[in-house]
Design a protein that fits this description.
By secondary structure, this protein is of the alpha/beta class. The chain has nine helices and four strands. The protein has two domains: about 55 residues, no CATH class; about 140 residues, 3-Layer(aba) Sandwich (Beta-carbonic Anhydrase, Chain A). About 45% of the residues lie in helices and about 10% in strands. It is globular and about 65 Å long.
């Protein structure tokens, strides 16, 4: 499913109780990668991919090798700072970030001190279409998926009430944005998020990417 999941990405908070290695990273990776890429002499190379899964794995391998030779090896100074750690300013929830663990949010806010949490929905979202198509009281055909989508029910009810005269596709577009607002509200149920927003150290931002028109819209919670 190409599901949103900005809509279910953010749940409400439950109410229940040796020596230092001095080898430069670029040189180390170059050395280890070169040795890994050398074909062994004691047996023949593996046969070509025999099915789609093998082809997908081979594509990942080829893509990395291309990145290594065409990007990484040519710009070592660009990647050098990565060894010093990270200090991200943004935490982003996008499509399919459906079951983001609360501990990941807590770590980003309390330990990494991110300044902005962005929740992004998008056009033609399969998850939103499923939500709007889901009948109240209907039997669940995909038990976990249905639970995942049901988080957006408040947004669905709002859209069906306020936009009843709109065509289905237009209602989906409105719901894509309202589902983002549900996630933003759910984020505020976490004390460390609410505290950060209250004292001005954290900002919640909603976003919607329309890949049909090429528009990207943002708004603050």
């Amino acid at each position: 499913m190409s599901g949103c999941l900005c809509l279910p990405c953010c749940y409400k908070k439950p109410s229940a109780p040796g020596g230092e290695n001095t080898t430069p990273p670029a040189a180390a990776i170059d050395s280890s990668s070169s040795s890994l890429l050398q074909k062994p002499t004691y047996h023949p190379p593996p046969p070509p991919p025999s099915n789609k899964m093998d082809a997908a794995v081979e594509r990942l391998k080829t893509g990395f090798e291309k990145f290594k030779t065409e990007v990484y090896d040519k710009k070592p100074d660009f990647f050098e700072p990565l060894k010093a750690g990270q200090a991200p300013k943004y935490m982003v929830f996008a499509c399919a970030d459906s079951r983001v663990c609360p501990s990941a949010i807590e770590y980003a806010v309390c330990a990494l001190k991110v300044e902005v949490i962005v929740v992004i929905g998008h056009s033609r979202c399969g998850g939103i279409k499923a939500l709007l198509s889901l009948k109240d009281g209907a039997d669940d055909s995909f038990h976990f998926v249905e639970d995942w989508v049901r988080i957006g029910f408040p947004a669905k009810k709002k859209v069906q009430t306020e936009c009843a005269s709109m065509p289905f596709d237009d209602q989906c577009t409105v719901l894509e944005k309202e589902a983002v607002n549900v996630s933003l509200q759910n984020l505020l149920t976490y004390p460390f998020v609410k505290e950060g927003v209250s004292n001005g150290t954290l900002k919640l931002v909603g976003g919607h990417y329309d890949f049909v028109s090429g528009k990207f819209e943002t708004w603050e919670q």
